[in-house]
Design goal:
Shape: globular
InterPro entries: DsrEFH-like
Helix content: 25-40%
CATH topology: Hypothetical Protein Ychn, Chain: A
Largest sheet: 5 strands, parallel
Distance between the termini: 22 Å
Strand order of the largest sheet: 4-3-2-1-5
Number of domains: 1
Radius of gyration: 13 Å
CATH architecture: 3-Layer(aba) Sandwich
Protein name: Sulfur reduction protein DsrE
Organism: Thermocladium modestius
Number of helices: 5
Length: 121
């Protein structure tokens, strides 16, 4: 079985990017269901997805499917911090783990070094 890390950078407020993110979440949940090792990490504007009111109504159900599948790894704490998106408290209330902080932006090596194939959406 494979190991896949889905890095979602898509802006949930942009319709085409929200659709892209929803597909990534469906793919991740489907691969997990088939027995693959899968994680989803929200970075950049994608960090808003867990709390977004997106114009694409399919994004919330796709996110909830990924949560049920147990594939959500977390969100970028650097991007969520006050100097950037300032949504860290909201993400924590939504149950997200924040990786990194205002001073430290993790890169995708945390997944590559663990043997994951990285897929960026």
């Amino acid at each position: 079985m494979g190991r896949y890390a889905f890095i979602i950078l898509s802006n949930p407020e942009d319709l085409s990017e929200a659709v892209r993110a929803a597909h990534a979440l469906h793919y991740a949940a489907g691969l997990k269901e088939e027995g693959h090792d899968v994680v989803v990490y929200f970075d950049g504007l994608g960090s808003r997805i867990p709390i977004a009111q997106s114009p694409y109504k399919g994004l919330r159900p796709a996110y909830e499917e990924a949560v049920r599948a147990g594939v959500i790894y977390g969100a970028c704490g650097y991007c969520a911090s006050p100097p950037h998106l300032n949504i860290g408290d909201e993400l924590r209330r939504a149950g997200l783990r924040l990786v990194g902080d205002e001073e430290h932006h993790e890169d995708i090596s945390i997944f590559i070094d663990s043997g994951y194939q990285v897929l960026i959406f």
